[in-house]
Design a protein that fits this description.
alpha/beta; 5 helices; 7 strands; about 25% strand
């Protein structure tokens, strides 16, 4: 793939999790989350994007979200469980994106807020229609996803490089 290859990053926030007495990292999905995760998977399938790679936080709620969402996809991408996605800042997330192989055209990231919202906002130098305003009004709730496109190498991903193409929430 050339450096001019159009690429897409889809950022998916985990589904609604239970509050528990255990560690935050080990929180499971709530009933609503188990209902919303397949809906997010259906939306991912409707985008028509064939993901080359999914990066999923190692937290229980993100792994469970991905397990339910991926069943809705026509093709299961290679999945890498990544500890660094948990509680990552936008800068740490961009550094992780910069490590992605240029063989990957379409990347799915399953993570947490505030990182997913902040990253979508940071990458989006422009947006289609009122998608950016819609995303910022909603606050990137659980099971929400944002689709960002850019051209170039993953090593060139930085603030403002992309266009926010779509934003979706299961309850809005």
């Amino acid at each position: 793939m050339s450096a001019d290859t159009p690429r897409r990053i889809v950022l998916l926030r985990h589904a609604k999790a239970e509050w528990s007495d255990g560690t935050d990292h080990d929180r499971p999905l709530a009933e609503r989350g188990r209902h919303d995760a397949p809906a997010a998977g259906q939306k991912l399938a409707q985008t028509g994007i064939a993901f080359d790679l999914a990066l999923c936080s190692s937290a229980a709620r993100t792994r469970e979200t991905w397990k339910l969402a991926v069943q809705e996809l026509p093709h299961r991408p290679k999945t890498s469980y990544e500890d660094r996605l948990y509680e990552a800042s936008p800068g740490e997330l961009i550094a992780l994106l910069n490590e992605t192989s240029d063989e990957v055209a379409n990347l799915l990231v399953i993570g947490h807020n505030p990182g997913m919202h902040a990253l979508a906002d940071a990458l989006s130098g422009s947006a289609r229609g009122d998608v950016l305003a819609k995303m910022n009004r909603s606050g990137f709730p659980t099971s929400a996803l944002a689709v960002v496109s850019f051209s170039g190498s993953w090593k060139s991903v930085e603030h403002g490089v992309g266009t926010l193409l779509d934003f979706w929430t299961p309850h809005g």
